[in-house]
Design brief:
It is built from three helices and eight strands. By secondary structure, the protein is α/β, with parallel strands linked by helices. The chain is globular, with a radius of gyration of 18 Å.
């Protein structure tokens, strides 16, 4: 057996399922606030969105292996969405107008990303980020990591 077969054959992540306590609220956030187009919906069972090559599905908790509902003070997942550099700030202004809970305003990080962090209605962490030139990172460092 090759190291490239079975689990070694995995080459990408293309389907994410977010378990939800409140499907309607999460559906509205991802469709109305983020503007993701609904590709598939089965009322009360799941809602699917295509984001580039990634398919995101929302489904209610309820299967025996889902576990208990998550406390809304805790995140279950962090999703990061890449955009061109100028769009990080445009996204920030849009989210502010829509009263979305911002965790961290647009920031040039030491790892050469410009980032924006915010939360969905169930406290999952969402990030809008752009790859930026190392010089941009050095000019406005986040002070999160030391620049060598």
């Amino acid at each position: 057996m090759s190291k490239y077969s079975g689990l070694g054959a995995i080459r990408s992540l293309d389907f994410v399922i977010i378990l939800c306590n409140d499907m309607e609220k999460m559906r509205d956030f991802y469709s109305d606030i983020l503007g993701f187009e609904i590709e598939f919906e089965s009322k009360g069972k799941n809602v699917g969105f295509r984001v580039g090559t990634l398919y995101i599905s929302l489904r209610p908790r309820g299967r025996t292996y889902d576990g208990a509902k998550i406390d809304h003070d805790s995140a279950s997942i962090q999703l990061s969405f890449r955009v061109p550099p100028a769009d990080v700030d445009i996204a920030y202004e849009t989210l502010k107008r829509k009263a979305v809970k911002i965790i961290e305003k647009p920031t040039n990080q030491d790892w050469h990303h410009r980032t924006l962090f915010f939360k969905d209605p169930e406290n999952n962490i969402l990030e809008i980020y752009a790859d930026i030139h190392p010089q941009d990172s050095a000019s406005l460092p986040s002070k999160v990591h030391k620049i060598l």
